[in-house]
Amino acid sequence: MTSLYAIADGKLRPATRRALMKESLIEDWVAADPALLGLDALIIGRQVPTDHGKFIDLLALDATGGLTIIELKKDRTPREIVAQVLDYASWVRTLSTPEIYERAEKYLKTRLVTAFREKFGEAIPDQLNASHSMLIVASELDPASRRIVEYLSEEHGVAINTVFFNVFEADGREWLTTDFLLDQEEVEERSERKVRPPWSGYYFVNAGLDANRSWEDYKRYGFVSAGGGEFYSKRLDQLNIGDKIFAYDKGNGFIGYGIVTATKTLAAEFMTEDGPLLQQPLKAPGLAHDADNPSLAEYVVGIDWQKTVEPSQGKWFKGAFANQNIVCKLRDQATVDFLIEEFGVES
Description:
Layout: E1 5-8, E2 11-14, E3 16-18, H1 24-32, E4 41-49, E5 55-62, E6 67-72, H2 78-92, H3 97-108, H4 112-120, E7 132-138, H5 143-156, E8 160-170, E9 173-180, H6 184-193, E10 202-206, H7 215-221, E11 223-226, H8 230-233, E12 244-249, E13 253-266, E14 271-272, E15 275-276, E16 299-308, E17 327-329, H9 333-342
């Protein structure tokens, strides 16, 4: 159960949890910004008609070309929604790449290849719908429905999860929070384990270069970082000392190969050879954002960079692996072989 407190005059004031006045608002919000669900995805359909006379609330496409079914509980009972989303998935898995183009372009009112490149900064994969996942959006689920979702994911590797929306009110203000029933990355890992090849031993890491993160800082002080919420920063927990990583810059390709030298720590506590990281002349001083809030602050992992290139010279080939996750295991052998050669990695 999520709790929320307002801080006023040095004292905590508990916020009151209440129901959302119009549950349909959630669909509007997610359609406008799927990042509310932790998704780096492009919405390609809303109230999508199936061949069974039903309608999927939202259909999304991720950077790998996989589809995500997003279904709101609305006025249905929890058990009904679990059965419904599974029924939708049985239909979605049959969609061909041309069918996805047709439906997406009707909704987007533009070419899918254009919308995809604008969203992800790269060309759309040749094949779409190689995988699909399901997200149930609800304020709560009954214990039986929770057990069903957990069972499908944990025992059978089904890519299904639940996102809980909670509304809190205090002092005339409202807040919206989101929580996953299961760790989404673990859900994806379990579902992909069935069909993906063995792990190569290398990690894929999104550099996330922006106003808060500079490639020049990464190289000079030896680190990678993530922050802005635990959903992002906790992905760094996967990296341990000695792990080998390839850093990826969205829209440019792979820009560095390195070895982990220090596990995840707050940026404010990370020590460089010249002293505390945040006391250095950083190119991206935004790295210090929310330093007093551990949930939102930036976290870093130490990296000994073996070889790097400028983002404009990023290493890439059509069909190379890319993913919206901050950290994940590299399993695509063609991409691994390419990167080993390009960055001169010794086996």
